[in-house]
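MODEL INPUT / OUTPUT PAIR
PAIR INDEX: 1
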Amino acid sequence: MAKTKTSVRPLHDKILVKRDEAETKTASGIFLPETSKDKPKTGTVEAVGDGALNTETGARIPLTVRKGDRVIFSSYSGTEVKLDGQDLLIMSEDDILAVID
């Protein structure tokens, strides 16, 4: 049976982010064991929703981030999901702190 790639489309103001890989060694060259690695607070936007709904006008408010943007987010933001063997985060645009240019 062939494995197919799952397509995910976040709803409203939600964003799907692939977290960056954790560093395996320090700047001075010391290798880090799995237990001491911090989860990175940066990642790449994989997909975005269609925007939040303005309740007064019924129009969508577009998101400021786009697919492919590198972003910084807060430590405990988002919900972790595993799709096609990849660990991803689904978070609100409000959890994004900055876009890395």
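PAIR INDEX: 2
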Amino acid sequence: MRILVINWQDWKHPMAGGAEVHLKEVFSRIAARGVEVHVLSSSFKGAREYEVLEGVHIHRTGSRPVFNFFVPGKVRELEKKFSFDLLIEDLNKLPFYTMFYSRTPKKLAILHHLFDRTIYEETNPIAATYVYLQEKLIPRLYRDWPFIVVSESTKEDLVRGGIPDENVRIVYNGIDVDFFRPMPRYVQPTVLYLNRFRRYKRPDLAVRIFAEVKRSMPQARFLMAGKGPYLEAVKRMAARLGVDVDFLGFVPEDVKAEVMAKSWVVLNTSSREGWGLVNMEAFASGTPVVGFRVHGMKDSVKDGYTGFLVEYGDVKGAAERVLRILKDKNLRKRLSENARKFAEGFTWDRAAVETLKVIGEVV
């Protein structure tokens, strides 16, 4: 079997995120099971037009901002060179509308989450409206497509939009519980934000939450790890509020695993997630998560069991939950044990096997 997956970025792209982790972990395992996997993604400075990574054939064309305009021509080129049994659209940002130009007979869509109106938090009104309206076309143009989604929330969005329930299968993300594992905690009570610095991830609210925490626990420390276009604005905001933050910048995977495991609680203030890989990395590390009760977050964070959820934007409520974890050793221990146990039920091997099962049924 030979398949073509279209995603905006491959996992070597400088802006790769959770969707690219999923791409690598699932499809490298599918390739290892004998399927010939090709990925079409955008190019970046220093990238090769073609290379093989983890057994997956990577084809790159166009830069990230205009990648979707290069996709039709490149798909037709690849289809002439290879005979694909299945084309998969990874609907990670905008649709590629391959039904209008692809000759591959069988098609499948993977969707992590829809931005919906949260896109207006991320970019200017014109660009946000462009994305918002394109998302509204998905239920109409992809109505007859089979879908793989990563959470109940994403399935609810699709079904509410008009995709038949029977067309949507949930395949949960996995986590490497050998790589992300518990370690001795920092001596100082430590709160961690580890995510991209994008507006819809709401790192600004994370700073405001910690400001409340600091008032009740002056000895607490706040780490913020990650990069993105909103980083400098958040730094200025922290300085303006007088909040002491250790900005770590981008951290490699081994450092990520260490700070995740040594921190006492992870603060995830995203306004919308597909599933929340950051949450699962924290859980595998035995670290509870505090966040908002929004799409994706409410699927991966079990309120009162692996962490706490409050209503979106409730800064004081989130700070109160963080303080409860920092101050109560028994609660912290219970949440930590629950989190690790929960994470151990999710593996990338299982995700790959279930994805391959759906692929087989479609083909």
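PAIR 2 NOTE: Residues 181 and 285 are 4 Å apart (CA to CA).
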